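Sharing a chain and its predicted structure for anyone who wants a worked example. Both blocks are below, sequence first, tokens second.
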Amino acid sequence: MATPPVAGPGPVATPARRHRIDDWRPEDPTFWRVTGAAVARRNLVFSVFSEHVGFSVWSLWSVLVLFLGPEYGIDPAGKFLLTAVPTALGAVLRLPYTFAVGVFGGRNWTVISAALLLLPTIPMTILIEPGVSYGTLMVLACLAGVGGGNFASSMANINLFYPDRHKGWALGLNAGGGNLGVPAVQLVGLLVLAMTGTAYPRLVPAVYLPLIVLAALLAARYMDNISPAATGRDGSAGAPGQGGVHSERGAMREVARDPHTWIMSFLYIGTFGSFIGFGFAFGQVLQVQFGDRFATPLDAAYLTFLGPLVGSLIRPLGGYLADRWGGARVTCWNFVAMALGAGVVLYASGRGSLSLYLVGFIALFVFSGIGNGSTYKMIPAIFRARARIAAGMLAEVPAEAARRAVRLAGALIGIAGAVGAFGGVLVNIAFRQSFLTYRTADAAYVSFIACYLLCVVVTWAVYLRSSPRRLSGV
């Protein structure tokens, strides 16, 4: 006779659905300590790997433009457009990718989204060579945008796994590991340039074909779906996300009417938009503005990866600092630092000082990484603060209100991620227009300084200034 199962503190997964969790209580200290932390950590590890590969595919064109020599017949303005197109599609896809977690389940969608990365990489491996038309390159660049959507679904999924007290660290680590895909693909490009020169750009996407397959297989083997009932979403105990999609859409509609959604989206344009925009454009800007210092694309590639690398590695620190001192405070001072960094770049550009220029640009990457972590900490804190107000400022928020706060935070993460990614498009367009009009990037740097200072004012006025309407604890 089989022994009946004994209820315990661990997450419950039915035998028929061993990758589905029907009981998930991360805010319960006992539950979290006994088994919750281990389950969340396992899902985080493989989510980071899949998102990392997605970011690399999204960033492929920041490298491939360095291979496009005179034989391709593309001017610098055309190359900036090639780096802007995947950024734009990646931004658009972030909203449906956020929904997809509720529809398919976090594990299932990670497998699907990883497999979709084959759509751009296979044709790029085949088609990129001298003689290919600019229109074909534009289509291939657009397809690479599918990698940008992975970030939103990964963040929304990991947001479900971690308790509020660890969200800043977990989301920062998840995002930072994904962001490392930008310098990683640039290092791959550097290696290919060093070994073969500019003759074989198709080798760069070819490197990622086995990694894409591996990411999908690992997600299928080791990740889990949290059922709709376990997160407070509508729906029965059917397939992961079944019925929950209506609740997800309702959450998206609700947060779309919330002014904090658009405030946070604007702030995220300043942080993540800067990071991804600079990451895509940095190598191009170096070649155009300091072309006399770089005899070959390889010379620029040695420097290109440094900024995205430090910006990615520093992102979890932004989440940690926000956990300790508050997301709004860290974000506000971080924008001050970004404005100063852009000022250094502007000054160095006018003086023609490459060393000072690199110092200022690396600082921009560092502070955009910190700001990415701190702004994502602010998002769940906004809804947690509202839940506490609705509960009469009780020390412990009722479970249903806490689940609703998590659901709304996930929806806002999707919107902010999509809008923020458009900042990368704006950065590339700003550089393109500045070079076309003034033959330098100085006008773009002035616009960045103005944007960062406006972000300082908005953060202080909404989240730090003493006011009866202020949400404490953000």
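Comments welcome. The longest helix spans residues 399-438.
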